[in-house]
Recover the amino acids of this structure.
């Protein structure tokens, strides 16, 4: 696996920062765990954001502005919250460990977002600030990715350009994967925990996540923690982005094509 991790001096601009993930959340009701809006999210999954909102709820409620550092086994979170125009905003920074974080630069970036909100800048403008400044590491190692509906429909696939044989068989492969689970519609309907499943193909393995009756299948040679974290992110972001399209799916996969932009944020395939 090759992690495309840049040294800070190698980024495109001195104003850019490389982090494992970042998110901006607006809270409308601090007393409700789920009553918040994710304004921007990249590299941080929805379950982590939900846990952060619950964990920091008291601190956010008690102080108009504050910050905290949470050290996890595989990464560190720096949370900065502030109030603006009567609303609460939470900026979540994620990186490998606390020593990688330049807290002065993170404070300055938080202030920049705060000012943009004060000036009532558009959502597109705020998102452009994130996209211009924050770099999320991309990783190689995914040979192919398939997103498949419970009926066997191939919603989306992306295959390494050097694996032409796999690309020619994408529909057959997705049908095979779907067939593995079709005998158990019962399993599909009960699968809510998004557990990682594995099928061994010699020196390669298919890793699958089943969530909301959608199968996310990744063909990988060697799995590592970052690839695994990104797998769950891909599942969450697809289900969030295409929630309505999945409800009214009529056989057309055209709406799902734009998901390649999100895939390219995390993986080099």
């Amino acid at each position: 696996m090759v992690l495309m991790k840049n040294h800070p001096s190698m980024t495109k601009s001195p104003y850019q920062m490389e982090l494992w993930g970042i998110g901006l959340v607006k809270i409308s009701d601090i007393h409700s765990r789920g009553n918040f809006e994710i304004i921007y999210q990249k590299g941080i999954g929805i379950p982590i954001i939900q846990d952060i909102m619950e964990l920091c709820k008291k601190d956010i409620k008690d102080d108009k502005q504050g910050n905290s550092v949470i050290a996890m086994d595989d990464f560190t979170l720096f949370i900065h919250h502030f109030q603006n125009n009567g609303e609460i905003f939470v900026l979540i920074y994620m990186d490998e460990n606390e020593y990688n974080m330049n807290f002065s630069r993170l404070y300055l970036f938080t202030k920049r977002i705060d000012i943009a909100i004060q000036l009532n800048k558009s959502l597109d403008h705020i998102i452009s600030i994130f996209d211009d400044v924050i770099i999320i590491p991309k990783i190689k190692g995914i040979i192919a990715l398939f997103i498949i509906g419970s009926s066997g429909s191939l919603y989306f696939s992306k295959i390494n350009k050097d694996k032409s044989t796999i690309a020619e068989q994408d529909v057959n492969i997705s049908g095979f994967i779907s067939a593995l689970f079709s005998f158990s519609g019962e399993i599909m309907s009960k699968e809510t925990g998004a557990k990682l499943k594995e099928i061994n193909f010699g020196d390669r393995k298919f890793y699958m996540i089943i969530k909301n009756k959608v199968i996310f299948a990744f063909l990988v040679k060697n799995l590592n923690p970052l690839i695994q974290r990104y797998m769950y992110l891909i599942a969450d972001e697809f289900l969030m982005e295409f929630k309505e399209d999945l409800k009214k799916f009529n056989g057309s996969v055209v709406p799902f094509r734009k998901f390649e932009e999100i895939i390219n944020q995390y993986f080099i395939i």
Summary: The domain at 3-137 is CATH 3.30.450 (Beta-Lactamase). The longest strand covers residues 76-84.
